[in-house]
Specification:
8 strands, about 130 residues, four-stranded antiparallel beta sheet, about 35% helix, rod-shaped, alpha+beta
Length: about 130
């Protein structure tokens, strides 16, 4: 007898389905983490730019307004959620033009709306330094 039995074919198909499922879920998790990482880098970049120029930044749920005279607006992906916890309980961070310091320091937590456990925290110190943990 040549060929495969129906059981062998079903086992083979079952193994392929399992491998495909693991690959797709792994890829989805990776792409979500990539979106989070890129968003955090964008936020850090805007904060550093605002600090070096002595401007300010306003945060909302997934949007950042960079007020430098042009009032530029940056919209992050819909899956990104920003939670701002500053010492003055506001959503604005304004940097001193000369020293680069700020009176609005605290943390910004960036997370995914699809997975709240996957998050990153950005710390803004009174000195104006920005750290990603």
């Amino acid at each position: 007898m040549k060929g495969f039995t129906i059981i062998e074919i079903l086992v083979g198909i079952g193994i392929l389905v399992i491998v495909a499922t693991l690959s797709v879920s792994s890829f989805f998790g990776y792409s979500q983490k990539e979106i989070l990482d890129k968003s955090v880098l964008k936020i850090e970049s805007l904060l550093e730019e605002a600090r070096s120029a002595g401007y300010g930044v306003h945060f909302s749920s997934n949007q950042i307004n960079f007020f430098n005279g042009n009032n530029e607006e940056y919209i992050l992906p819909n899956s990104i959620v920003i939670n701002v916890e500053l010492i003055d309980e506001g959503n604005d961070i304004i940097f001193d033009k000369i020293a680069g310091t700020t009176d609005q320091y605290g943390t910004i937590t960036v997370s995914l709306s699809t997975n709240a456990d996957l998050k990153k925290t950005i710390i803004i110190y009174k000195t104006g330094l920005i750290e990603n943990i």
